[in-house]
Amino acid sequence: MAHAYTPGLKVSARASLRRHRVLPIPGEVLVAAGQRVGAREVVAQTFMAGEVTPLNLANLLSVPPGEVPECMLKREGETVRSGEPLARTKGVFGLFKSQYHSPAAGTIESISPVTGQVMLRGEPIPVRVLAYLAGQVVEVWPGEGCAIETEAAFVQGIFGVGGEAFGRLRIASQARDEPLGAGHIREDMADCIVVGGGRVGLDAIRAAQQRRVAALVAGGIDDLDLAAFLGYDLGVAITGSEQLGLTVIVTEGFGDIAMAERTFALLSAREGAEASVNGATQIRAGVIRPEIIVPLAGAAGEPAAGAGAPAAGILEIGAPVRIIGDPHFGLIGQVSALPADPQALESGSRARVLEVALRSGLRVVVPRANVELIEE
């Protein structure tokens, strides 16, 4: 029988994971090698320069630029509070003086006698990097960050939005094919990672936002609901930086799709445990998958498997696959044919392809690079 090799999403009851936690600019690492850390613990921190507020005091005080330094009540390097007098004119015979109050707090960075501009630098912005994983620090890079390892139950999704989130796992659906609606989201689920079975609806997403749920995990989502949640149509780009107050991860694809039985059973078995999730997704080069990580804290089980990258699997006729390229992104079906010779694509290029029988009954031909195996 014809077959090929393609990666699939990882679903493991016990995997050895390592994550690098690195500062965007040099700073201070707060942990040491061998130290145990919690997911919410700050492992490194730094300060980024505050925003600059330019002030054209020559215009604001109606004086020549060269007189601005003489009018200043504060010098370069000195701090000023919001609303505090910053500059004052000499006036006429000591009368009719004009005074300007600082619109923001900060430090005087520069005073130009050429342009009459004053640059006010805001307070430094703290940047803190959390451990993300509850585990052990195995490597430290001074001034940069660290690496953390843990053994955990590990599930990769196909798509997500929103960044890192933490909370206890709460199973909201009774079955893996039960849609997740607003009625499943309760007040006591605040700060939890709520797991549904089938498609998550827009009403459930809105309810989760309102009740301050940390993250939603479900089998599928409608693309129109996703656009309504984001406020725009999502193009081909990396996700994860959205500031929506909620991370959403789908494990199977777009549409009314039930969560894989193995995935639902694994997450259900860990209900009540602390978990970490990240919705960051990138489909093209440098693939990034959304993930759900539930540290095992020494629990016994099958031997840990490396989960640094999806395992390769055999792609053969009858194998379940998910399409990860437009225009059929997220659809699930079975391989129905594996032509051996490259074929011409709509773009004019030639590539090796396969035929997928979708659940709707439609058969489509897609490049082999645009599918991934659904691992069981």
Which CATH first-tier class of the domain at 158-288 would you pick?
A: Alpha Beta
CATH architecture of the domain at 158-288: 3-Layer(bba) Sandwich
Percent of residues in helices comes to under 10%
Which consecutive residue ranges, at least 5 long each, have pLDDT under 50?
Answer: 1-5, 299-312
Structural class: mainly beta
**Biggest sheet record:** 13 strands, mixed
Helix count from the secondary structure assignment: 5
Shape type: elongated
Number of strands: 31
Care to describe what's here?
9% of the residues lie in helices and 41% in strands. It is mainly beta and 376 residues long. Among the domains are: 52-121, OB fold (Dihydrolipoamide Acetyltransferase, E2P) (Beta Barrel), CATH 2.40.50; 158-288, Glucose Oxidase, domain 1; 317-373, Roll (SH3 type barrels), CATH 2.30.30. The radius of gyration is 28 Å and the shape is elongated.
Concise account of the structure shown:
The protein has 376 residues and is mainly beta. The chain contains five helices and 31 strands.
Keywords:
OB fold (Dihydrolipoamide Acetyltransferase, E2P), 13-stranded mixed beta sheet, mainly beta, 31 strands, 5-stranded antiparallel beta sheet, Glucose Oxidase, domain 1, 376 residues, 9% helix, 41% strand, SH3 type barrels, elongated
Give the helices and strands, then pairings.
Elements (H helix, E strand, L loop, with lengths): L2 E5 L3 E12 L5 E2 L6 E2 L4 E7 L3 E5 H5 L6 H4 L7 E2 L4 E4 L10 E3 L4 E6 L5 E5 L3 E6 L4 E7 L3 E12 L2 E3 L2 E8 L21 E3 L3 E2 L1 H9 L4 E7 L1 H8 L16 E8 L6 H9 L4 E5 L12 E5 L9 E2 L5 E5 L3 E4 L8 E6 L5 E2 L5 E2 L1 E6 L4 E5 L3 E3 L3
Parallel strand pairs: 2-23, 16-17, 17-19, 18-19, 19-20
Antiparallel strand pairs: 1-24, 2-14, 3-5, 4-13, 5-12, 6-11, 7-10, 8-9, 10-11, 13-14, 14-22, 15-20, 16-21, 21-22, 25-26, 25-31, 26-29, 27-28, 29-30
